[in-house]
Amino acid sequence: MTHQLREEDLTFLDRAPIRVEQERVIGVPAARVWPWVVDAAKWPTWFGGMKTARMTSDGPPAAGGTRFVEVGGIKANEVLLAVEANHRYAFRIVDANLRFLAVMVEEVTLDESDGATTVRYVQAVELSSWYRWMAPLLRRQLGKALGAALDGLKETAEAG
């Protein structure tokens, strides 16, 4: 059984009750990092705990496209909110198998300077009312997971 999450746009990134952000500098141009971000099937190679990620819509990834992910115990359908080549990839969870999430919007941005790329990953979350007590724990876990994911992205993009 899936749980529908509330629809939000990218402005939620600035007003979410829980906002986790991590950043890494990757020593290659954005064009070498971008394929690892935009290709859903590549996410499990660098995002720890992600078992599956695949596009569920036809065509290349674009705003309005959809994908399915399984990470940890969460199985979720997502919709892409923004896809700007070599710069921005953002999405929100549409529905998931766990009821503790009310909203989740995520954004990955790439900013290139002097041949290196600063990657910033933001997760914006609102918990369902019965689960708001979990906020401090979730914030810590998300921060740790995002840091590890970006370390994986750095290692993968610099090697490949």
How would you describe what is shown here?
The chain has 160 residues and is an alpha+beta fold. The chain is built from four helices and eight strands, in the order βαβααββββββα. The chain has helices at residues 12-15, 30-38, 43-46, 135-159, and strands spanning 3-4, 18-26, 50-55, 66-71, 74-84, 88-96, 101-113, 116-127. Strands 1, 2, 3, 4, 5, 6, 7 and 8 form an eight-stranded antiparallel sheet that branches. The longest helix has 25 residues, at 135-159.
Task: Describe how the helices and strands are arranged.
Blueprint: E1 3-4, H1 12-15, E2 18-26, H2 30-38, H3 43-46, E3 50-55, E4 66-71, E5 74-84, E6 88-96, E7 101-113, E8 116-127, H4 135-159
Antiparallel strand pairs: 1-6, 2-8, 3-4, 4-5, 5-6, 6-7, 7-8
